[in-house]
């Protein structure tokens, strides 16, 4: 049921709740995108989330396409996860010691991701990517890394500049990043294999790693060009460079990740988001000889008070059990993604709009940019920001919660019903003519 009678307080008006949030939380948020700057408004403060819906503090309900920015795949507050988490809590929330459920979870992930010969659990995707790069440096004894504009790999110093939606930091000391760090990071255009080739040839024996989102979800949804990933894989092999796939978004959302989809074996994989069934759990893992570099056996330090804690591990098991209990789990997600994407394409055609809709499994996206789907961050930045802001608000008024930035994308869960999707499409049919430039 679409709540088109919404009279959401939009625009620059500051609700009492937001005013209160801004007094205690810097910018009123714990992560910048939540402030809604790209859509020029304070976003709804959320009180509860169930299934495909979130409820704001004023009692308004929305169909949710943020879904925690990726972690939610079963739907919010899935009882199978909640019950296991409650059980785990009852037996102790953090041990500071290895436990067998964590070992069992590692084994399950190694079965899902054949490229992972060993792994380690951490709490956030940021930590996973940060340590993956450190391992690559230790292995190769080289200092520089290559990453791609528009890909986001967490908020460590070397990952935050030129990193797409989640981090619009500049490579300057004003952003808190030192010249030394900037010097060690080469940022290339996504999908530009010639730039990768040129850089590796020009800097022989300098590059430790290439880290990439094999399907990028941080500049809208940007798919790899044909053969891009395969060529990066080959070049890494030729030049002795460690290939890191950041599958923090794609990992569990696509089953065996983009690496299964494209049949490419990275040297290290970073997982997070969906892995924890909604709780904070991430991991990095890969080639055994690389993982052997980790302390205590090797020289590379990494640690974490909450790493692999039994509560988050229990949530991950519950999530994996739910996936395995339904042989059609990923087919269902794909079907839902297609229903939404095809519906949007039909609406675009009816309205004579040529904004390309991109879909991969349960990830769906379009940008207010004409022509072919964007291939890199520069092209993503050509999208019309005002149109998206109008669209965001028009959808919000119709009971659909989209991410408050065009550089993010729509995430579906198995809890999104066909009726949810059809209601979303009905809202989009009304909202798009009010938004398009
Ligand atoms: N990698 C990717 C691809 C991400 O999208 C994110 C988070 N948006 C991260 C890493 C960082 O994960 P976290 O926020 O858990 O630190």
Polypeptide structure, described:
This protein has helices at residues 16-24, 79-90, 100-112, 125-140, 179-183, 193-202, 228-239, 250-253, 257-261, 288-291, 310-324, 329-350, 377-380, 385-397, 418-435; strands at residues 46-50, 53-56, 61-64, 118-122, 144-149, 185-189, 207-212, 242-246, 268-271, 282-286, 357-360, 363-366, 400-401, 410-411. It is α/β, with parallel strands linked by helices. The chain has a domain at 79-324: Type I PLP-dependent aspartate aminotransferase-like (Major domain) (Aspartate Aminotransferase, domain 2), CATH 3.40.640.10. The strands form three sheets. A seven-stranded mixed sheet has the order 4-10-9-8-7-5-6, sandwiched between helices. The structure holds 4'-deoxy-4'-aminopyridoxal-5'-phosphate (PMP). 4'-deoxy-4'-aminopyridoxal-5'-phosphate (PMP) binds next to helix 4.
Q: What is Rg?
A: 21 Å
Helix content: 25-40%
Averaged pLDDT, please? Answer: 94
User: What is the CATH homology-level superfamily of the domain at 79-324?
Assistant: Type I PLP-dependent aspartate aminotransferase-like (Major domain)
CATH fold description of the domain at 79-324 = Aspartate Aminotransferase, domain 2
């Amino acid at each position: 049921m679409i709540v088109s009678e919404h009279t959401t307080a939009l625009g620059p008006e500051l609700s009492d709740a937001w005013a209160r949030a801004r007094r205690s939380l810097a910018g009123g948020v714990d992560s910048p995108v939540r402030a809604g700057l790209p859509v020029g408004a304070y976003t709804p403060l959320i009180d509860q989330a169930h299934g495909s819906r979130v409820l704001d503090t004023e009692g308004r309900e929305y169909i949710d396409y943020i879904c925690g920015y990726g972690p939610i795949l079963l739907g919010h507050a899935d009882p199978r996860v909640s019950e296991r988490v409650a059980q785990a809590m009852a037996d102790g929330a953090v041990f500071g010691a290895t436990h067998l459920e964590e070992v069992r979870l590692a084994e399950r992930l190694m079965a899902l991701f054949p490229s992972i010969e060993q792994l380690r659990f951490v709490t956030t995707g940021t930590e996973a990517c940060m340590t993956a790069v450190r391992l690559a440096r230790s292995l190769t004894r080289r200092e520089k890394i290559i990453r791609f504009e528009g890909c986001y790999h967490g908020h460590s110093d070397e990952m935050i500049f030129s990193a797409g939606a989640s981090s619009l930091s500049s490579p300057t000391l004003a952003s808190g990043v030192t010249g030394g760090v900037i010097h060690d990071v080469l940022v290339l255009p996504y999908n530009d294999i010639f730039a990768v080739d040129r850089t590796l040839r020009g800097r022989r024996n300098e590059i430790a790693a290439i880290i990439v989102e094999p399907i990028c979800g941080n500049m809208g949804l940007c798919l790899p060009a044909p053969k891009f990933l395969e060529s990066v894989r080959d070049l890494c092999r030729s030049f002795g460079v460690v290939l890191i796939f950041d599958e923090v978004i794609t990992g569990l959302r696509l089953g065996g990740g983009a690496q299964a989809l494209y049949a490419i074996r990275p040297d290290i994989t970073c997982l997070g988001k969906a892995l924890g069934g909604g709780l904070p759990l991430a991991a990095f893992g890969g080639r055994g000889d690389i993982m052997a570099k980790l302390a205590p056996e090797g020289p590379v330090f990494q640690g974490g008070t909450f790493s692999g804690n039994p509560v988050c591990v229990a949530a991950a098991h519950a999530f994996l059990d739910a996936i395995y209990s339904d042989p059609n789990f990923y087919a269902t997600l794909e079907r839902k993604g297609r229903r939404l994407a095809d519906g949007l394409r039909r609406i675009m055609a009816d309205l004579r709009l040529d904004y390309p809709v991109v879909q991969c499994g349960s990830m769906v996206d379009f940008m207010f940019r004409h022509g072919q789907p964007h291939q890199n961050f520069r092209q993503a930045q050509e999208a019309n920001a005002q149109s998206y802001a109008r669209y965001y608000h028009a959808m919000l008024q119709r009971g659909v919660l989209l991410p408050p930035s065009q550089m993010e994308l729509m995430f579906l869960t198995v809890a999104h019903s066909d009726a949810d999707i059809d209601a979303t499409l009905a809202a989009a049919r009304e909202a798009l003519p009010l938004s398009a430039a």
